[in-house]
Amino acid sequence: MTGDTAEGDADVVGMWVTADGHIRQELRADGRYDEARGNRDSAYTGRYTVTGNHIDYVDDSGFTATGDIRDGVLYHEHLVLHRGESQA
After folding, report:
1. Which bin fits 29, alpha (ψ -120 to 50), beta or left (φ > 0)?
2. pTM
3. Tens of pLDDT along 26-64?
């Protein structure tokens, strides 16, 4: 959870990975995220907040995205990510 979340919000901190390991999204306890894509580390970085099971992302470049945790799976826009370790 981040400092901006309320009690009862989903615990999202950790590494989230697509089934093929190509996309690896680290959600940090300080409310920041770092997403690697393939061989490109830190392809996207920014901040996130959690409300219940919903995640709002704001990239450092300014674009926004959303995600939801359902049954232990992170559905982030068109991606499906599971808790895991970096494949890098």
Report:
1. alpha
2. 0.84
3. 999 999 999 999 999 999 999 999 999 999 999 999 999
